[in-house]
Amino acid sequence: MKEEILSNLNNPGQLERLYRTDKSTFKRVFNALYPELTNNTLAAFWNERLNFAREEITRNGSKELVWVIMAAVLAGIIAKLPAFLHISEDFFYPRNIGFILFPVLTAYFAWKNKLSTGKIAFIAGTTLTGLIFINSFPDVKQSDTLILSCVHLLLLLWSVLGFAFVGDLNNNDEKRLGFLKYNGDLVVITTLIVIAAAILSGMTIGLFSLIGLNIKTFYIENIVFFALPAAPIAGTYLTQTNPQLVGKVSPVIAKIFSPLVLVMLLIYLVAMIYSGKNPYNDREFLVVFNALLIGVMAIIFFSVAEAARTTKSLTETWVLLLLSLVTILVNGIALSAILFRMAEWGITPNRTAVLGGNILILINLLLVTVQLVRTVTKKANISGVGKAISFYLPIYFIWTIIVTFIFPLLFGFK
């Protein structure tokens, strides 16, 4: 390796080939040789490349850290409101679980991005409208529209968070894809935080039990209630101030999971045929089928968000294309099952909501697939796929408004 490096000091391409063949050996040998090569410009470049100091975890100002701590405490207090105010947990949590976390994260990005007063008023007005509406909903035991409103209110609050992250309603593709990437990174870092916290909690409860003190109930009802909402808040702070923490992990996860999900879907569809189960006459199966569809869509969106920011190989793009095509097939089966059930048993709030959501997803999938085909045929680059997703996100926001606020009125709060 030593002789090869010395003989190719004026050949950048050959040095790059040597480096990619065996990076660790190349670095070790080059560092040993470098004191003799200080007058060589290319050698100086390689020295900077190989020995550039890696970024450490940073604290982006004490004010921001204090703000994050206050947000975590506030989220914990909101989570404990049923205990403080003696409110029924069955009433409070289904309606208000989204308000524990989303408003504080939205406020964080609104503050971080220095949004104008008008934009803050829009965020506050939308959030307050959702809060008042969902808590004014008739307290009935069986209500499909209540469940639909609660679920879609979470998506509405997520959309408001996206607005605070992006900072405007214009078609800003880069920032919208950045928001999707933030969600993927947040899932990764929050999972790690929760795993670490769970280990610490188990050790704490176990150590106290050894000295005869049972703190399990107190620990869960107080510490855990504050720690759970604090985890994504801390995760958000870390992803924004230290993107290098998960910046290299998320693309690897996307690269690994995309082909695995594709294989799983293909096997699942074949197994479904042989099992005799289908979503046409089994309501629970249809629910699981749609949940599967949404999960696969999320993986496609996350993978495309990563792809749009990095150079994607043709093989990886083909995997995304095949995954999109199979997901379109899954969507088509789910859509036909919903239409069949509506024709057989009539229109209900659930069927109407699922039908509308599936149609929106199908259109989005078709747009993404068209762009992926253009990419693999070299007629466009991968950024076009990102645009097909980013410009469509506000349409989901509009749909969440319709289901959250209009469906209960349309179906008489049934």
What labels would you give this structure?
about 425 residues, 3 domains, about 0% strand, DUF4153 domain-containing protein, membrane, transmembrane
> Helix count?
18
Report helical residue fraction: over 70%
Q: Terminal Cα separation, in Å?
A: 75 Å
What's the number of structural domains? 3
Strand segment count: 0
* Beta-strand proportion: under 5%
Low-confidence parts, pLDDT < 50 over ≥5 residues? none
Multimeric state = single chain
Q: Label the overall shape.
A: globular
The whole-angstrom Rg is 26 Å
> Helix and strand string, N-terminal first?
HHHHHHHHHHHHHHHHHH
Main structural class: mainly alpha
The average pLDDT value, as a whole number, equals: 84
Largest sheet: none
Written overview of the protein:
This protein is mainly alpha-helical. The protein has three domains: 2-51, no CATH class; 62-244, no CATH class; 248-410, no CATH class. The chain is 80% helix and 0% strand. It has helices at residues 2-7, 12-21, 23-33, 41-51, 62-79, 81-85, 89-112, 117-135, 144-166, 173-210, 216-241, 244-247, 249-275, 283-307, 314-345, 349-376, 383-390, 393-410. Helix 5 runs antiparallel to helix 11 (216-241), helix 7 (89-112) runs parallel beside helix 9 and helix 15 (314-345) packs antiparallel against helix 16. Keywords: Membrane, Transmembrane, Transmembrane helix. This is DUF4153 domain-containing protein. The chain crosses the membrane at residues 65-85, 92-111, 117-134, 146-166, 186-211, 223-240, 252-273, 285-305, 317-340, 352-373, 393-413.
